[in-house]
Amino acid sequence: MGYVFFLKGLEMLKRIGLVLVIVLVSWGYQAIHPPPPKICGSPGGPPITAPRIKLRDGRHLAYKEYGVPLGVAKYKIIYVHAFGSCRHHTVVATTLSQEAIEELGVYIVGFDRPGYGESDPDPKRTMKSLALDIEELADQLGLGSKFYVIGFSMGGQAIWGCLKFIPNRLAGAGLIAPVINYWWPSFPKNLSTEAYYQQPPQDQWALRVAHYLPWLTYWWNTQKFFPASSVIASNPQTLSPQDMEIMKKLFSASGPDMKTYMAKQQGEFESLHRDMMIGFGSWEFDPVDDLKNPFPNNEGSVHIWQGDEDRLVPVMLQRYIASKIPWIHYHELSGAGHLFPLASGINEAMMKVFLTGQK
Q: Where do the AB hydrolase-1 domain residues begin and end (predicted)?
């Protein structure tokens, strides 16, 4: 009789064990698989409020125009926004005075990168596909055969893609504190390692996951066991003293930036996490080794601006890039952090150098 009870108990334990395994597998699957994005204009999704173009694959790209009318513009610029931002954060336009805009005769269009703001997500996004999106935006808006591109922070990475995949369309290119991929093969191992370990430990792990285990990026940045990306968490340790001052002035002048929520309204995976997987993944090219001068006859120019106290983008790697690509005009700003484009007067000076060569 006792033996029968023992067998029944063993069978019950097996069933309980099986249920626990199923529960754990189900939990694990849900934990590492992000929820579907809330597509703008879809049932339950955010409304469509911006003008949009329809791309070659059926996706939509939202944009916002700044500056003088396109028809009278002397300079036509496409701006690529930073991590966690959107078309409303076109800093090269929003920080320029109306007088400077008219003096330069500049037209600027900012757009929501795929998955941000009101642009449809692109699960197949690559450095090349984003460059082609930019080219298609220029063509559909009628910017002409040549146009300028400029990107800030993570948006600066897109400019490397433009230099690689659509160089014949560029009149000039600007990279403002462009985020660096530590895994570019051209970096000396000791240099990239030193720069990598200057980051907070939590960011070292977040980038390792994005590079080596991209399928875990969503889980890593939403789990509560370990600290995730300090950038996503808006940790102030990523800000330099100058950055802190800039943030205080902006906050006191206008309060919290509600448009930041709009940037990721379709979900963080196809915006923030996709950015991390691409920005720190394996690229189709190495900017140091694989780019050619798009302006061999000096008919245009390529510029990098970098703060020497930037805590997000190591200045030592930016200096290395500039030393290896002789046709890049490198501008290092003393005492500047990562947010220097938001400082008063900086963008006007940068735009004059970028467009006219005036120092």
A: 78-340
